[in-house]
Amino acid sequence: MSWRTPISESATSGSSSWGNPLAAPVLDREALVRLYGRPRDYRLVFTNGVFDLLHRGHVASLEAARLLGDRLVVGVNSDDSTRRLKGPARPYQSESDRAAILSSIRFVDAVTVFGEDTPEDLISQLLPDVLVKGTDYSEDEIAGARAVRKAGGEVVLVELEAGLSSSGLVLRIQAGGGE
After folding, report:
1. Least confident segment among 7-16, 90-99, 137-146
2. In this structure, what CATH number is given to the domain that contains residue 79?
3. Taking Cα atoms as reference points, which of 26, 27, 5, 25 lies closest to residue 16?
4. How far apart are CA 46 and CA 37, in angstroms?
5. Residue 56 and residue 162: Cα distance in Å, rounded?
6. Whose CA is closest to 131, among 102, 159, 157?
7. What is the pLDDT averaged over residues 144-153?
8. Which domain holds residue 111?
9. Is residue 5 part of a domain?
10. Exposed/middle/buried for 91, CB within 10 Å: 0-12, 13-18, 19+?
């Protein structure tokens, strides 16, 4: 049995035969702010992270974030930023690979890579209507929260799936264990 995907003439231009994009764009900051910044006529949601080893918990959090608005933009820490935050052995995957994987998720509308340790400046430029992080943060720890609130937006903490983390996954792999 073979597996087939719908292919059309539009496949080379980045869309399937149904007219939906095959992947969200990975944009630099300037293009992202130009396309998704204010003013806009839809509700923009922003979230960010390292997303080094994408797992079900990440996908659930991203889906929960997307349900809070009309468009979801995801910021990804650069390789240098990840090393500063997580140590010299990280990231396990390059920033371009992590961005490409995230852009393939159907409810992600755009992805951008940022080089700072936090996306504070990016968020201040973009000013999303909703800023989302996991419940492992408190609102006063969330980069950009003050700017979003000042602009009339909201900060939402989404519940994390218990037992799902990249660090936990790495420990299981290193221990040679499964689930």
Report:
1. 7-16
2. 3.40.50.620
3. 5
4. 11
5. 11
6. 157
7. 98
8. 22-174
9. no
10. buried
